[in-house]
Amino acid sequence: MSRIGRLPVVIPKGVEVEIKGASVHVKGPRGELRQTFPASMEISLNEGAIEVKRPSDERTHRSLHGMTRALINNMVVGVSTGFEKVLEVNGVGYRAEIQGNNLVLFVGYSHPVVMEPPTGISFDADMKTRQIKIKGYDKALVGQVAADIRKVRPPEPYQGKGIKYLDEKIRRKAGKAGKV
Questions:
Q1: Which domain-ending residue is among 80, 101, 116?
Q2: Which residues pair with 34 in a beta bridge?
Q3: Who is most buried in 18, 138, 148, 154, counting CB within 10 A?
Q4: Is 24 domain-assigned?
Q5: What is the pLDDT of residue 176?
Q6: Are the C-beta atoms of residues 137 and 30 closer than 8 Å to each other?
Q7: Residues whose CB is less than 8 angstroms from the CB of residue 160 and which lie 6 or more positions away in sequence, other chains included
Q8: Of 70, 37, 50, the residue nearest 140 (C-alpha)
Q9: pTM of the full structure
């Protein structure tokens, strides 16, 4: 049986969960999320915890079991505590600023790049550490917005300039070999 799938999802205080068939609606202090899961997965609410059961040991049911539980856990954690991704801006003259709600990137183009946050996402930029923080309650959306920001100027391997994740390691390459 799936090690992840058989663990119950504990519901913290202040979070309301509503299960209607294969649809799960989670509401908490940070926001609310709704998602529909495969009908074959049996989702039940027992004593302040959500349990996911699968009907058989078929390959498709095994693969959906852990995924369903992980997605429900991400929904509960998101509406209670939220998620955060941190990006780092490297390069001479490269910087990020907040103007209103928008993130403005100065990363070597002839114009500043303005990124508007989708609903449920907020940006925070620190000029001293050159970091951009993306915060939100939907884990998938936080990751997608972080990937979109990184895509504006991905890190290059020769000088290491660009926007990278805080924990990302850039494999550096040697430049052209000089004449001997």
A1: 80
A2: 25
A3: 138
A4: yes
A5: 84
A6: yes
A7: 90, 170, 172
A8: 70
A9: 0.89
The domain that holds 118 is classified in CATH as 3.90.930.12
Domain-embedded: residue 173: no
**DSSP assigned state of 107:** S
8 A C-beta contact, residue 149 and residue 103: yes
Q: What is the pLDDT of residue 155?
A: 95
The whole domain housing 121 covers: 83-165
Q: Give the DSSP letter of residue 2.
A: -
Distance CA 161, CA 165 (A): 12
Residue 111 burial (CB < 10 Å; 0-12/13-18/19+)? exposed
Q: How many domains is the chain built from? A: 2
Q: Based on the fold, state whether residues 75 and 92 are members of the same structural domain.
A: no
Helix (H, G, I), strand (E, B) or coil at 45: strand
Question: Last residue of some domain: 47, 80, 113?
Answer: 80
Task: Give every residue of the chain whose pLDDT is below 50, as ranges.
Answer: none
Closest CA to 141 of 100, 84, 68, 63: 84
Beta bridge partners of 157: none
> Cα(159)–Cα(163) distance, rounded to whole angstroms?
12
Predicted confidence at residue 174, as pLDDT, reads: 87
User: Do 161 and 87 belong to one domain?
Assistant: yes
